[in-house]
Amino acid sequence: MKALFRKELREHVWVLLACGAFYAFSLFALAVNPSYNGENASALHGLRMFLLGVYPFLVILVTSRLVAREYTGRTQLFLETLPVSRATILTAKLLLGLALSIAAVAFASWIFAKLARRHEPFDRHWLGLLALRTFVYAGCVYAFFFAGGLLGRYRVAILLILLVGLAILGDTSTFKLEEFGPIRLMGDDFAYERVRLPTRGLWVSLGLTAGFFALAYVLALVREGTVSALLAQRMSQREKVAIACVLLGMAFLKYFYDEARGPRPYALNNATRAESPHVAVMVGLGQSVNAERAQQLASRIVAGLGELSAELALPTLPEVFVLPSRDLDPDTYDRGTLQNARGVVVQANFTAPGFDDDAFVSWLAGGVVDTATRGRATEERRRWLLDGFSTDWSLRHASEETLRLHRLRAAYGFPTGPTEEMLRDWLTTRERHGDCLSSALAWTGIQVLREKLEPAALRRFLHEALARTPSSGLRALALHESPRAELLRTTGLRLEDVLAAWRARLAEDARELDGTLRTIPRLTASIDLARVSATGREVRYQVGLEPAPAQPLRVAFLTRKLDPFDRELEWKDLTIDERAYPDLRTGVLPRTFSRGERLAWMVNAQVDALNCRVSSGLRRVEVP
């Protein structure tokens, strides 16, 4: 056996050294990352990341050299001439690879345990749980890829079919991949669970490990090793086509199954219900919500969405589920995400004294139309139409004073009027000016369309631009019209003419409201990322309001670390620091950022004259 070990080590020494270099680099990269070394979260997250991402890759490399390459190159025939049995040869390979894999896991566990000890208390019971979960998982992964190496030319195809099959099974049944065997051992609670052991996942993993090792011996020993030798031969073109057909067939079956089944209905227990021919609404009764108040809100939503359905010519709307949340402010709403279920789920603090039913229904209308059109209405180039229509629809019974307030907001936020680029990049416009002012601008655009078009023509355009569901099948690959083209086709009106009339409307409002506009303060802000260490930077800010407000204001400074991709940010994702103005016009935020990170920041303040928050605009910068 020792001679076999020495033979394997001499034969694969360069590959093993390369694996060692990659292993060391991966550990170093994880150990210096604040997200994985215990600075920002538990260092055991770093161990979990290593086991899920790095370790399987290393095992694939090791087992491919020890097993797959041996049988593919047919060099096992030379070993079989030695006075040792096939079982001994396979056992030597298995034990060598297993020893290397377990050693790599043991050293990584020691590194991250040392990092975790700096911030977390350890005891023997917890260490035992971690060790058991870690090494059972490591052994199961090794057994899987070791047995896969003996499948020869079919190992990659079987792996792909297995992954696709598990994904389909998880999407079409109650099977949860994250609760299965070794995946459960590496669950989200890996770094924190100190008491209970996922017993079911542990026993399933041990059973799989034994099964995979048994499969490896069967493939290597049955019929004197001829099965594994035949599997190691090159794949024919016919076999490649057959495997491709199997994968495509699975994908098509999944597609047709989803089309035929459709999303499952979302179920909400302990709720009051109101419905009409167009929409059904359920309002939750949790958190001591009064049934009468829930029924009142449900009826209000049904009435409002019924008018929305008629306005956009949408025969049916998705079900709406409203959940109570006392943690939210009265004017803050949160929309949930449903997987494999249909409907719109939102949270709101609708029992709070300052909760506005009309404002909530207006906000809800955007999500309902978005869901009804499968996301088409929220495409960035047509998003301004959705914001404008939702605001216009919520103001259909508003007083002259409320309409004047929206005109004032639009004239204040956009003194030069809109451009085509602002409408095309509407998410950027909202980030720069805030939702309140942007919605007011979009509302004035809808007002301009109402003035220039007959009601039937406007309804036809809004249905085409917002309410039409996207095509499916091959038609979905065709180029789609822009709102500019849809406007011209359905109404004969050019976007340039609309923009000119829109700017003229805002200029007229600005002249009419000039006296009030002069008294409303405008917010400016700047930051300086000052060095406090070799890699740390603190945020020093400066805020201005001109003309100065008559009363002190609470100014909110919002920040967030960004990932490499620019995407729309939700208010709940931002960290908020409030400051009193004018007492703290300048200052330092109570957090630091690292060099090379990306930072989003903005300042906003509540302006009573506009009854909304004005913003300095969201800006994204890289920390120097």
Distance between the termini: 57 Å
Count of folded domains: 4
Structural class of the secondary elements? alpha+beta
Large-scale geometry: elongated
Radius of gyration: 32 Å
Q: What is the number of helical segments per DSSP (H or I, 4+ residues)?
A: 22
Low-confidence stretches: 473-478
Tell me how many strands there are.
Answer: 15
How much β-strand is present in the residues?
5-15%
Task: Trace the largest sheet across and list its strands.
Answer: 2-3-4-7-5
Tags for this model:
624 residues; alpha+beta; Zincin-like; 4 domains; five-stranded mixed β-sheet; five-stranded antiparallel β-sheet; 22 helices; 15 strands
Give the SSE layout:
Elements: H1 2-11, H2 13-31, H3 44-72, H4 76-79, H5 86-116, H6 124-149, H7 155-172, H8 181-185, H9 199-221, H10 226-231, H11 237-261, E1 264-265, E2 271-275, E3 280-284, H12 291-312, E4 320-324, E5 333-335, E6 341-342, E7 344-348, H13 357-372, H14 380-394, H15 400-413, H16 420-424, H17 426-433, H18 435-452, H19 455-467, H20 483-491, H21 495-512, H22 514-519, E8 522-531, E9 536-546, E10 553-562, E11 575-581, E12 586-594, E13 598-607, E14 612-615, E15 619-622
Parallel strand pairs: 1-6, 3-4, 4-7
Antiparallel strand pairs: 2-3, 5-7, 8-9, 9-12, 10-11, 10-13, 13-14, 13-15
